[in-house]
Amino acid sequence: MAELLSLPGVKGTYAIGLGWRHEDAIPKAKALKAMAEEKGRWGVVYKTSADAIQAGFCDPIEGAKSPRGIKALAAVVADAHPQPWLGTYDLGNGLHWLLAVRDGNEVIPDGDVVGTLEAIHQAREKHLPLGDWKEVAGTLSDLADIARATRKQPALRDLNGQSWVLWGGVAAGTAAILAAGGAWYWHQLQVEAERQAQLAAARAREAAMRQRQQVVVLPWTLLPAPSAVLSACDVRGTSSPLHAQALHWRPGLARSAPMARQSLWPGSATAAPHRRCRGQ
């Protein structure tokens, strides 16, 4: 028979003395109801730290109107030591508890026993032949320390009540909604990634097209052509003072070379009028 237990310094209530069995998969609500008729209408189904599935059952516990908020202590304490281990705990006031855990960190059948010291000794003798046990002894305070350090604490539910059906339906519905939402979100991410890839490709094509359209100007094409150089020299030559003197040349001057030379140089007698003309 299951009992309620309070641990010093720990909030909430715990149940000990459940009947446990291994399950290959999480049972459906209909199957749980069928088991509850035989094994007890209050119970819990959870996955151990080794991913094994366990189901625990008990009849309604005296002193509790419903299983709400009552946690299965065996499921909370099962990982306290490496398997296989067998613990006996003195709960005070002549009450003792035995917990036997092995094979996938599961509580074995008849491995969650509460009662007198004599009942605990009988249960221990029954399990010892399985062998390789690590035996542990403790008190209520030791259990409180384990409970405070354990985050995963499966709670009991009414397997025959409407609350269990609703809980299962809500859980399934929530899972479906989350799955659908996750699929939509993933699809949106893929669509956005594809759009960004298309934009990047378009930008790359546009940049390549602009680069092809640019005219490459070779440095030597900016130099003046030879004809332009000759034209510039011709213009500069015709605008010089020597060229102006040559325009005033007369045939009579050719017979007097000195005078011709003198007239061509600044400072000569013939050049003075030319300077005066330039000054006018």
Order of helices and strands: EEEHEEEHEEEHEHEHHHHH
Give the class from helix and strand content and strand pairing: alpha+beta
Number of helices: 9
Give the C-alpha Rg: 54 Å
> How many β strands by DSSP?
11
Low-confidence stretches: 162-178, 253-280
Proportion of residues in β-strands: 15-25%
Sheet with the most strands? 4 strands, antiparallel
Account of the 3D structure:
Helices cover 45% and strands 22% of the residues. The protein is an alpha+beta fold and 280 residues long. The chain has a domain at 3-160. It has a 4-stranded antiparallel sheet with strand order 3-5-4-11, with helices on one face. Strands 9-8-7-10 form a 4-stranded mixed sheet. The chain has a 3-stranded mixed sheet with strand order 1-2-6. The protein has helices spanning 29-39, 73-77, 117-127, 140-149, 162-213, 226-238, 241-247, 257-264, 271-279, and strands at 3-5, 13-16, 19-23, 42-47, 53-58, 70-72, 85-92, 95-102, 106-115, 134-139, 157-158. It is built from 9 helices and 11 strands. Mean pLDDT is 78; it is low at 162-178 and 253-280. Strand 4 and strand 5 (53-58) form a beta hairpin.
